[in-house]
Design a protein that fits this description.
14% strand; alpha/beta; 8-stranded mixed beta sheet; 16 helices
Amino acid sequence: MHTENKTNTVSLSVSTWVFMAFFMLSPICAVEKMDILFIAIDDMNDWTTLFDKNNPIQTPNLERLAARGAFFEKAYCASASCNPSRTATLTGLRPSTSGVYHNPDPWGEMLPDVITLPQAFKHNGYAAIGAGKIFTHGKAGAEQKDNPSFDAFYKLQPAGKSKLHAEKSHMNYNGYPGRKRYFDWGEHDTDKQTDEHTVEYVNEVMASHPREKPLFLAAGIYRPHMPFFAPPRTFEKYPFNTLRMPPMPENDLADVPPLGVEKARISLDGWNYVSQKPDDHPGSLKKMVQSYQAASDFADEMVGRLLDQLDQTGRAENTIIVLWSDHGYHLGDKTSCGKTTLWEKANHVPFIIVAPGITQPGTRIDTPVSLVDIYPTLLDLAGLPAKPDLDGQSLVPLLKDPQAKWERPALMTEGRGNHAVRSRDWRYIRYKDGTEELYDCKTDDPWNHTNLLAGEDRDKYASVVAEHQKWLPATEAPERDPEQVRDNKQKKR
């Protein structure tokens, strides 16, 4: 096991006080600080033109941003669930270090002494302002109440009324009355979408914030997260009759261990609904995929509005931009309609950094990296002191030289004991019961269709497996007791 991993108990209080003391005792540098524009997209996978011009989902604004700086072609989330992924990115701590493995985990309660990424900038004289979905959303808003990460935050705003639900108020538009309302998709013809509220607020901040105060500005774009709602204009780009679907070979889970199938249980539940419907039914898989593509297109449009405002305000030359998605999404591939798996399409995400004076326009970096590297990278780019307790490491060496030596693969986690290691050519998965998967990603299996460890010749891959096992966590934080989570929720009501 790799020796750099943290212990199973998160003890951050000492390092926290040291970090804060440094800022309180150190004079603010007279040199003008760079602003930070921090853009988070929800559930966008890699089936976009950003990754490959031949992909169906059009993302011209992501490509426009990538043309200004560095695009990481092999970037991976820490977990394919919103809360653990975002917590890992914004604290710099993997789930195996923090114990935040699941969406219901109250990360603020579990990590009371942690200094989040926005807080690190606040402590160094920045104004930290955010909007939309940055941390996981809910009744508590964007972050913990007792120790807010932002000086000001504009929460997710509801979209206006749509004709889409006018005649189906008692059920989802796609016809699943027993499902949660989020399991829905279709053309949403309201005048203003949720993300348009967010972008308008962020753009106002860019226009009005005083230049003498450095700015950490976070914009959380909710789409393409379910429900896959988007304006009719985006659907026009993805005609139903010519819609491209992912490859879906029969019996694709036949070589997957039981725990791998269990990890996809939510996705499989969705699959059981949508796969039974004819293509022209509102609740069919094809309609879902069309709506996801339209919603992804809309998210790209929102990024374009942010970039337009950045340019119009004259802030671009003094702004570091980072864009990332918290995880990907299965669209019928792997017999799944969702996330929460350790396969490529649930973990591979867009990730772009533009750092004036550091990044070269149009750089593409194919070294596997993790989103936990964002925190130390931004500290490094901004000239702030490093935090030695973070799990990630600064990507600045790669930004300066895309061919720089980089030894660490990307590590992904789904619940305690279930991990994937992604190197340049391979995806290795090990579950808590010791069962394994291995996929060759360099040539013929980008969709993880063939588990090489399920066949008779698995022994020929022993050295590959051993090399990847070295990067599994040496120790893991315990999972939070679900009963304790439920008790805490009831006490707060």
